[in-house]
Amino acid sequence: MDFNVKIVKSNSEKELVLSIRKEVFIRGLNIPEHMEIDHNEDLATYVLAYIDNIPVGTARWRETKIGIKLERFAVLSEYRSNGIGQKMTKFILKNLHKSKIIYLYAQKSAIKFYEKLGFKSVGNLFEEVGIKHQKMIYIFDGK
Description:
This protein is of the alpha+beta class. It is 27% helix and 38% strand. It has helices spanning 11-28, 33-36, 84-94, 111-116, and strands at 3-7, 45-51, 54-63, 68-75, 102-107, 119-128, 131-138. A seven-stranded mixed β-sheet has the order 1-2-3-4-5-7-6, sandwiched between helices.
């Protein structure tokens, strides 16, 4: 199985990103399109994950007042549990400035996943689009 992650550079790749997000979030989780496709689309940097040249996952990051926010992690259901989310997260972290605060809002079901990658929970659970989330901050371990 040939696996790679790359930063999105073209409009055609951006269309692939949106098609994955629509499948995972809008159709899969019933999140309204106007909430999923937001005003930050043009402010973010995106990645696409491929297995055997098939786009199967995506995520993005963007600068905020707090730091750098990782968000919109999505993997097509038939490709989950293959380490794609972990590989995308590690790829993104390697591309970020280590002096900035790096954070995300993890769905409750994904908290342990992000803890294994070095994120720490901050504050209490909160609800976003009807789903419980946890703010998490990445702690660089010096590697």
